[in-house]
Design the sequence.
């Protein structure tokens, strides 16, 4: 039996209710860092992206993370097939997928580093550079765009005083554009780490950011 | 006999083996369906979308490179729909292409140029700015111009499937996709990466060695044979009587479409200017230029005066014809041992995806020919040493082709007659009584015998300097005067009278441009 406590698989809190705590939105078990052991093999590499303190120099496949990797490998016939979750694990540990991480993954999976780089760069959800504590992904696809997503992007950039893809000086925010987040009924949708903020208007942006900054570690 | 399938392509009924692709079937009626990603030596990902053809009954255009023919299929490669498909695809290829053809090395032999010229739109419609990558040094001999790339991934597949060293990959996605290595890793240390320049259908991958050196349309192409005992079929691309580059020539029995980097870069020796250009007589001190008739007569007179045994040094870079004529001459002078020296590398470097092809250990094109004719390999693996008893020999010393660069100027000083036949002078030719200029493989016709006993022809690509003549002509004439063999006037006749059993019954016509295996499989290891 799985010991993953899928108590509350829902994502979005009620629109604009930023007074809700993480616990209230997700249930207590989802708050904080992801369990390192990864739970059941089926979830070992695919658990939701959490607010976690990332260590850019963290050891990749040692100790409990080695067990996680073995769990992942147990689900796939070849090393090549396990590439995506293995890269995901790197990102979970270090917050991004560095060239060194790609090289390490290539080695444990017996693939060529160039191939791993090709895959890692193909998927936009692997961060190829370090990102802030809060990765702000603003949907600029069609529905959100019609509802003024560009202004929302600008508002985030103004508040954080960054350019797209840059990390703010305090290390809190990195703002990027995202393609459709599948919340077209609630434009503009913004995904911050694993949490969705829906019907966001430019005026709400400072409020959201202040709220995030005040959140506990 | 394989099952045959009957199909109609552009109104022509053809019968091809089951499993043949539309693209290959079209080739049998002489129609080339435009394509980028398809290459006969590799898998087809069907991603360039250029070989889309119209198949009657199919709901949409089919990619010709992966669609296998079916009985009774009616295929149109030149119909209005097919042409419209290609025109559309080609327009997309030009969206970000820089159109820098005037400074592109591929210009003149570029598939994008050719296809757009033949089937593209008369006018572009793009008004948007183009995305720009610039160029990237892949290491080795390869430069990458990302903007010219059509993302056919032939280079990626060559490295992963044929060389089997997955150094290249497609990085990023969408219109940001670009070919790259693993950051700074590069292609250094691989032995076959030059082939990705050949198979690149556009000017995205170019050779640093050939960069801006010559225009493709100024080059003359001459079929030839490469300089290791694999005997890869190559084409010498020449301009201004200089070899500008070497390209592989397709021959599925030997090297398919591939050529190693080592061989590809080994051409400057054919362009050397410091050649012996006239027959020289040094027997009376000084160095007197002779005409050919005079030179041969003088040598014959000298042989009559000179007594003592014959010791001879040949070269594994000489053709079968040259070696046979040399052997006849030695026989005419009373016979004697013939030795040769040739460089060797540590071991064969095979091409993993086509293992019958390797950079062979023997780095000379005709070691097998020399071995068949009973010549003995001496010296070390860098083709030096081994000539101690010849250097001081007091009889007749004959040298063919070997430049003797490691030998001192006392080489042959004790000889009663020392004749040097070759291309370059060195210290060791100082004591030669006669020096005769001969041609290189690029300047004459002839044959080499490769490691597996395949005899292959090469053709004349360059004009020889001064009075240089093929060695088979010069040595053959001398031998004929001494009663060994007859006088011949062509390389073909020279091959026919070689008198070596292994080649008996084979003619130049049999060899053609694909080569033929000789009568006996010989031991190729030499010494």
Sequence:
């Amino acid at each position: 039996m799985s010991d993953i406590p899928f108590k509350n698989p829902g994502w979005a809190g009620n629109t604009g209710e930023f007074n809700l705590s993480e616990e209230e939105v997700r249930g207590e078990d989802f708050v904080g860092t992801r369990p390192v052991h990864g739970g059941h093999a089926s979830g070992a590499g695919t658990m939701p992206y959490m607010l976690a303190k990332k260590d850019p120099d963290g050891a990749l496949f040692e100790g409990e993370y080695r067990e996680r990797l073995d769990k992942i490998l147990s689900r796939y016939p070849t090393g090549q097939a396990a590439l995506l979750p293995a890269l995901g694990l790197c990102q979970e540990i270090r917050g991004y997928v560095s060239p060194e991480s790609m090289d390490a993954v290539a080695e444990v999976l017996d693939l060529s580093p160039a191939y791993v780089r090709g895959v890692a760069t193909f998927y936009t959800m692997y961060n190829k550079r370090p990102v802030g504590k809060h990765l702000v992904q603003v949907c600029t696809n069609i529905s959100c765009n019609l509802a003024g997503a560009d202004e929302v992007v600008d508002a985030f950039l103004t508040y954080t005083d960054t350019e797209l893809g840059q990390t703010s000086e305090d290390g809190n925010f990195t703002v990027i554009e995202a393609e459709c987040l599948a919340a077209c009924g609630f434009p503009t949708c913004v995904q911050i780490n694993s949490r969705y903020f829906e019907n966001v208007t430019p005026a709400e942006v400072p409020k959201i950011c202040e709220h995030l900054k005040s959140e506990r570690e | 006999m394989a099952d045959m399938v009957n199909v109609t392509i552009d109104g022509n009924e053809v019968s091809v083996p089951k499993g043949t692709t539309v693209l290959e079937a079209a080739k049998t009626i002489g129609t080339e369906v435009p394509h980028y990603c398809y290459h006969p030596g590799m898998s087809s990902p069907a991603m360039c979308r250029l070989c889309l053809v119209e198949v009657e009954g199919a709901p949409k255009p089919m990619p010709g490179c992966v669609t296998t023919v079916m009985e009774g299929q009616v295929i149109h490669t030149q119909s209005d729909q097919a042409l419209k498909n290609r025109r559309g695809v080609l327009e997309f290829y030009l969206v970000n292409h820089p159109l820098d053809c005037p400074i592109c090395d591929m210009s003149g032999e570029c598939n994008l140029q050719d296809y757009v010229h033949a089937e593209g739109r008369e006018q572009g419609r793009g008004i948007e700015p183009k995305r720009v990558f610039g160029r990237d040094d892949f290491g080795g001999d390869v430069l990458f111009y990302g903007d010219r790339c059509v993302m056919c991934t032939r280079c990626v597949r060559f490295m992963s499937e044929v060389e089997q060293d997955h150094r290249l990959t497609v990085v990023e996605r969408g219109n940001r996709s670009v070919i790259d290595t693993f950051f700074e890793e590069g292609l250094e240390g691989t032995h076959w990466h030059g082939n990705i320049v050949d198979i690149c259908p556009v000017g995205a991958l170019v050779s640093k060695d050939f960069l801006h050196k010559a225009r493709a349309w100024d080059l003359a192409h001459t079929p030839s044979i490469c300089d290791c005992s694999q005997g890869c079929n190559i084409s010498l691309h020449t301009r201004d009587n200089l070899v500008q580059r070497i390209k592989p020539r397709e021959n599925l029995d030997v090297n398919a479409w591939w050529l190693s980097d080592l061989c590809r870069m080994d051409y400057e020796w054919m362009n050397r200017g410091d050649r012996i250009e006239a027959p020289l007589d040094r027997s009376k001190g000084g160095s007197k230029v002779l005409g050919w008739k005079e030179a041969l007569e003088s040598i014959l007179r000298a042989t009559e005066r000179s007594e003592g045994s014959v010791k001879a040094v040949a070269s594994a870079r000489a053709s079968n014809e040259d070696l046979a004529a040399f052997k006849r001459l030695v026989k005419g002078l009373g016979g004697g041992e013939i030795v040769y020296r040739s460089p060797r590398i540590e071991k064969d470097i095979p091409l993993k995806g086509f293992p019958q092809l390797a950079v062979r250990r023997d780095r000379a094109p005709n070691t097998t020919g020399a071995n068949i004719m009973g010549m003995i390999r001496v010296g070390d693996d860098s083709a030096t040493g081994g000539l101690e008893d010849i250097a001081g020999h007091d009889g007749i010393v004959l040298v063919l082709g070997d430049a003797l660069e490691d030998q001192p100027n006392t080489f042959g000083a004790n000889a009663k007659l020392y004749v040097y036949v070759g291309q370059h002078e060195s210290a060791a030719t100082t004591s030669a009584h006669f020096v005769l200029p001969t041609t290189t493989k690029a300047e004459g016709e002839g044959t080499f015998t490769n490691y597996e006993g395949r005899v292959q022809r090469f053709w004349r690509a360059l004009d020889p300097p001064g009075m240089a003549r093929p060695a088979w002509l010069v040595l053959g004439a001398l031998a004929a005067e001494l009663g060994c063999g007859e006088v011949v006037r062509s390389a073909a006749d020279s091959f026919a009278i070689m008198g070596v059993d292994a080649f008996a019954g084979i003619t130049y016509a049999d060899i053609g441009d694909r080569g033929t295996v000789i009568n006996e499989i010989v031991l190729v290891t030499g010494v």
